[in-house]
Design brief:
alpha/beta; Alpha-Beta Plaits; Rossmann fold; eight-stranded mixed beta sheet; four-stranded antiparallel beta sheet; 12 strands
């Protein structure tokens, strides 16, 4: 990971990082509140050795006192001193318990002893510190004068109180500020570690660059998430051009991404562009049926004829997506129960988009999709239009792999932040096992806001929401409409060698703009190749 990747991780998980850091702060504060309060009082005493009348005597006495005070440190922390202090203060604690509450120090190069006593109340801490200094003085006097002779001569070494203990105004423990600071620091460290671990173990699709790096397959399109989709409305109504003021920003962005995908397919192979394309996914619920329906609509809006076939003979969805009646379809054509011209249903007003439903769900979908009859049908339709085939997911069943092996390739739809790289690579491996060609990957449902959107190329989302100031595009001219209506359709071309087609079924209420381009003929090289087959 590069430095920019770490920054993206922090930006992506800043809410979690902030929450965990705040939680650590609260834990530190709560710990400080639960701890018993301890007060500390300080007192001190000094060791002196005689009274010097000259500088030499004073210097000698001071040096002697400094040498003696070091030996008194052990005396000050003895059980006898603790017992005397307990008796003086009336405490019931044992000497050993009192020793854990008292600390005696000798500051460097001094003859003083500093006593720090801790207790649960300010008064008890003060009294204990005072009593401890007095007890040290008594034991020093007793020790120094224990060998006095009968003449009553006293030792020149004495210990007396230097600074009386003061009543502490605030507890010395717990240190609330320190506890809060440590809690905050630990919370931040844990939060950053959590974010990095989540980034490492999160194998879901996050960006186009990672998808291409993980799979070695190009991402030829990204479809933004659209909140307006539901079970009955899955077709984008944005007709192209500068219609941002007429449609929602999300819908306009989805429409633009579909046009970009259409362009990428068109220029994928200029000499021999793919005309039989399978659209599939790794798992159900990744939006392949919605993507293929809107892609077919985008291709038809450009004036190129397109036939979309529901090849998902297990859970067909295209008829419902386009709002067309369900009935006879692909399975009926394959078993000879119906002719293609009878079941091919037009959609929209452009005259360029035709839908072939799945028909009756068969008990043997894999055998039907792998039949020579389907192969011949796809070749016939590909001579007249671009054929898009909605296939089942790759991992649960083998239908999509069988279909792809007989077409120009497959577009694999994956769901952003849901499908994992392992699932996607397994799906592509299934295509590789049958030597099928993968045209590219389409990432569906990508975010358009936040730091996650940058990984899919939607950093500048504000463009889609800008109100257009240009005048609306002029309506198509009468000549264009006439030319569009005069262009032959795939259904009429297919019907030229058989009886007239059935009456058109009811179309959706969607109105696409008329186009003036005639139906493109299949390339001569492709016709010769299919004839040779």
């Amino acid at each position: 990971m590069e430095l920019t990747d770490y920054w993206k991780v922090l930006r992506a998980h800043w809410v979690s990082i902030l929450a965990i850091a705040v939680l650590g702060t609260l834990v530190g504060f709560g710990w400080a509140l639960l701890q018993p309060k301890v007060y500390t009082a300080n007192a001190s005493g000094i060791v002196s050795a005689g009274v010097g009348t000259d500088i030499g005597s004073a210097m000698a006495g001071e040096n002697y006192a400094k040498s003696r005070v070091k030996s008194y440190l052990d005396l000050a922390m003895s059980r006898s001193v603790a017992a005397s202090a307990a008796e003086a203060t009336g405490l019931s604690d044992s000497p050993d318990a009192l020793l854990t509450r008292v600390r005696v120090e000798n500051p460097l190069d001094t003859a003083t002893l500093k006593v720090s006593a801790s207790a649960g109340t300010p008064e008890e801490a003060r009294d204990l510190a005072e009593a401890w200094v007095v007890a040290i003085g008594d034991h020093v006097s007793e020790l120094e004068n224990s060998g006095a002779g009968a003449d009553g001569a006293m030792s020149i070494v004495t210990f007396r109180s230097l600074d009386a203990a003061q009543l502490p105004s605030s507890p010395s423990s717990p240190n609330t500020k320190l506890a809060v600071a440590i809690g905050s620091l630990v919370g931040v460290v844990v939060a950053i570690g959590y974010a990095l671990l989540r980034r490492v173990f999160d194998r879901r699709v996050r960006s186009t660059a990672e998808v291409e790096q993980e799979t070695g397959t190009a991402v030829i399109g990204t479809i933004p998430a659209h909140r307006g989709f539901d079970d009955d409305n899955r077709i984008i109504l944005s007709t192209g051009g500068n219609d941002r003021s007429q449609r929602g920003a999300d819908e306009y962005a989805v429409a633009e991404s579909l046009r970009e995908l259409r362009t990428n397919l068109q220029f994928m192979n200029i000499d021999d562009p793919p005309r039989k394309i399978v659209v599939t996914s790794a798992l159900p619920g990744e939006g392949k049926s919605t993507v293929i329906s809107n892609l077919a609509n985008a291709i038809a809006a450009s004036g190129r004829p397109v036939i979309v076939i529901d090849g998902d003979l297990r859970r067909p969805m295209l008829a419902k997506t386009f709002g067309l009646p369900e009935g006879a379809g692909l399975t009926d054509v394959l078993i000879g129960r119906a002719k293609i011209v009878d079941v091919l249903q037009p959609w929209g007003t452009s005259g360029k988009l035709f839908v072939l439903g799945a028909g009756k769900v068969p008990p043997n979908p894999s055998e039907l999709l792998g039949s020579k009859r389907l192969h011949s049908l796809l070749d016939e339709l590909a001579e007249l239009a671009t054929v898009l085939i909605d296939a089942p997911p790759l991992l649960p069943v083998t239908d999509a792999a069988i279909l792809t092996a007989r077409t120009d390739g497959a577009l694999v739809v994956t769901r952003a932040r849901r499908t994992t790289y392992d699932e996607l690579k397994a799906a592509l491996a299934n295509l590789g096992k049958v030597k099928a060609h993968t045209l590219g990957i389409i990432i569906n449902g990508v975010p358009m806001r936040g730091v996650s959107a940058e990984g899919y190329g939607y950093r500048y989302r504000s463009y889609y929401g800008r109100t257009a100031t240009e005048p609306a595009a002029a309506a198509p001219s009468a000549a264009q409409s006439a030319a569009s209506s005069a262009a032959p359709s795939p259904a009429s071309s297919a019907a030229s060698s058989s009886e007239a087609p059935a009456q058109p079924v009811k179309r959706s209420s969607y109105r696409a703009p008329q186009q003036s381009e005639p139906v493109p003929a299949a390339p001569a090289s492709r016709r010769r190749a299919r004839t040779a087959e």
